[in-house]
Each structure stands twice: as structure tokens, then as C-alpha cells.
Amino acid sequence: MRKLKIWTASIVSGFDSVISKVENHESLVASSIQELQTAAAHATVKLGRLKQEIRRMKDKRCQLEQSRERWKERALALRESDKAKAIECLRRGKSVESEIAQLEKEIPSHNQLADSIEADLRKLQNKIDELKLRKRAFSTRASRAKAMKICQDYSATSGEQLEDTFERWELKLAESEIASSACTDSLEDEFLREEEFAALEEELEQLEPSLENKTAHQA
């Protein structure tokens, strides 16, 4: 755990000083966050194992306490009938008490270590969250600065050239549209003339003499 503290502290303390010496800032920040997340993952695994050990120790203490009571009961039961066995039962009960006493010392120290690791993990996670937030903020600023630089470069060097290009492009498109329109109109006119002629021809075939002309013709 001490190595973990030293490692994570060195990552965090060196973060600001190192970031000013490299070009790819975003990559460095992402790498540092990844290292901290790896450290947090390792600490989480160790904490889980430590808590399992604490549970095992507590279970063992409970079993030993039950065993101590059994040896005590046996000693009482044999006190009058078999004093030697009763004494042996007491002796074994004392041995169990020694184990319980040892566990009584180890369990608090393990609990204290688990609490310490949990506190370090909370601090580490807070630092990770802070770095992620700062990374997003700086990435946004970097994107904005890049966009502004592109706009400035465009205005300073390429603006007029691009405007000339757009004008030439628009002129070329206009010429193409005029040529296409002329071709389309010519063809349209040809069809319209033919259709008009056919219609007039059909109308001519259906013409009837006027009433006045019919009377004159009959006379």
C-alpha cells in the first residue's frame, strides 16, 4: 500500500510540471488518467481481498469462542470424576484463548488498513474525476482555439484566393446553365412547332363551310 501511495502521489504531483514540456497535451493527460485508474483498480482488488481476510478472521474468532466454551464445559463436567482430564481441558481452553487474543489484535489493525485504503481510493477517484473534468474543459478550449486559428489563417492568407475561386466557379456554372438552357429551349421549340402544325392540320380537315357560303353554293 505504501508503494501505491508513493506511485499515485508521484503521478499527481508531476502532472502539472510534465504537461508543460510536451506537445501532445491531451495524450499525456489521457495516459496519466489511465495510470491513476490502473492504480485504483489494483487498490480495489487488494481492498476486496483484505475485507475477505477480515471476514475469515471474524468467523474464526467466533468458532474459537465456541470452542473455548466447550472446553470450559468439559472441564467443569470432569472436575470431580477425572481431575487430570479436567485440567487438560482447561489447558486447551487457555490455548484457544491465546488464539482469540491474537485475532483480537489483528482484526482492528486489518480494519484500520482497510479504512485507510478506502480513504486513499476516494481521494484517488476524486483526482481522476477532477482530471477528466479538466481534460474535457481543455479539449474544448483547444478545439475552439484551433477553429479560431483556421478562421484567422483563412482571413489572412486564403480568403481572397478562395473568394476568387468561388467567383470563377460561379461563372463556370452560369455558362454551363446557359448552354444547357439554350439547348433545351431549341429542342423544346422544335417539338412545339411540330405539335402546333399537327394540331392546325387536324383543325383544317375538320373545318365546315360557313352558313353564308352554304347558301351561295346551293343557289
TrEMBL record:
Any matching Pfam family: PspA_IM30
Keyword Coiled coil: yes
Regions annotated as coiled coil: 33-70, 100-141
Keywords, sorted A to Z: Coiled coil
Record flagged with keyword Thylakoid: no
InterPro entries: PspA_VIPP1
Positions of transmembrane segments: none
Family from the record: Belongs to the PspA/Vipp/IM30 family.
Stored PANTHER family: MEMBRANE-ASSOCIATED PROTEIN VIPP1, CHLOROPLASTIC, PHAGE SHOCK PROTEIN A
Listed name of the protein: PspA/IM30 family protein
